[in-house]
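Notes from hallway chat w/ T.B., transcribed later so I don't forget. T.B. wanted the structure written out for a chain they're using in a teaching module, and asked if we could keep both sequence and structure tokens in one place. Agreed to drop them here.
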Amino acid sequence: MDGRVLIIEDNKGNCQVLQKYFGDAGMQVEVTNCGAEGLSLAMRHLPQAIIVSTTLPDMSGSEVVEQLHARTRTRHIFLMLLADTDVHRERLDALDIGADDFIAAPFDPDEVVLRVRNALRRVNSSNLTDPITGLPASKLIREQLLRVLKEPEGEWALLRMHVRGLKAFHEGYGFQATSAFLRWVGRVLAVALSEDDVTDDFLGYSGNDDFIIFTHRERVASLEAEVTVQFEQEVETHYGFMDRQRGFVLIDGQRRPLASLQIQCVTSQDGPFYDIRSLSEALAG
């Protein structure tokens, strides 16, 4: 079971148990004991599931869930609240504010893992999230494009981050390495977006080696610069020593360039756009 889970819990015993069981299930696990750091990690790393204790030292678990649900970039993440006791009113309130699930101590860690696994399977199979990157996929990207069309004179910008050379990378290194590479690109983009306090931007993966970003127009120049620098600094670490030395990959005796990032930007000033097709065509360049 691939995937990433963030546990926001100040009870060390609960953390250790959940970390072990999710790790045994093949998931990458991050842990923090306070809500503020949990919110920061969620924005920077975009886990596929977050388990939040209802009682944290700096804020309530409900506040964490409300903030995650209110932010466009984290709204798609599966959220489970973990309570000390099973109080019916608390359970209803948690679901009402945006939590996807609720479980109370003492809990069965196997059940928690199964609930998360089943939830991720559902969103992946319905094209809500991409199973490799964990990012919003076609349906949620379409929602953002519709949102753009409703703001023909808005201050928005859409960016298409196209990973060139990914096919050669896949041929040379295989599926697992390519999946890890795509997840790394997603993290680079998420970290760049989290450098300020904007909460209504969006990051998705549409397939075809394309990441889609919805953000504010004034952020484009700095965002493009930061992403480009980070990508170029780290991309070679995903290649073997000989390929790094040569600066290319040999596929069937042919030289294929290392992966690079091509950025295409469309803003409201490039319009007007009347439908998703015209907007998508402009974004494709």
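Follow-up for T.B.: The chain has a mean pLDDT of 91. Might be a good example for the class.
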